Amino acid sequence: MEENSKLDKIVEARMKLKARFEQQMAETPSVSDARPMGNGEPNRHGMPKLPVGQTRTVKWPVLDLGFKPDIHLSKWKLVVDGEVESPVTLTWDDFMALPQTNDVSDFHCVTTWSRMDVPWVGVRLADIAALVMPKPTATHVLCHGYDKYTTNLSLEEALKEDVLLVHTADGHPLERDHGGPVRMITPQLYAWKGSKWISRIQFLPKNQLGFWEMRGYSNTAYPWRNDRYS
Known about the structure:
Helix content: 10-25%
Strand content: 25-35%
Mean pLDDT: 96
Radius of gyration: 17 Å
Largest sheet: 6 strands, mixed
Number of helices: 5
């Protein structure tokens, strides 16, 4: 009974967050661009299935900074802090007790390959945000990986319903090579915006560039605008 009450509160808080950012989310290019670049049937947001400059792949290439953290589930933790009302540190059991979401979405890498219709299981970033409740001053998140990687997102992008922290892909636990035990996915943006081996979500009062953004990659990363570099 207590567990159901906790989950109900998370869902209620998520709906309040959605209402708070709904207009901003609706105006982002990945759902509102009148002239998106790409080809194929429309995806669920009305964008061409394959963004401009991308090639479909069945394989899942491995890209990282040259270091693959090996985190045992008993040691894994996710810190959620910054401009929030109730910062938390989640253990694996805490994370798995949150509402779990099954979704199928596409994965677009800035290096020009796209992996289509990947089945995922994970937790919406919006549900994690609902758990901590961002303050009115929060505008962005900076996501940190166990490999010291960082990447930034505006809240109107981070709170979209298909932005997930995934632990399962293709019906199997997420492999270490691909960021397991947990990585973030951002189907509406190039995939570098989703941190592998995620360890911290930091809510910020202003934008702060991440690892690749400081090295010439785009701050916004919209695939249907070929928005790869700054």
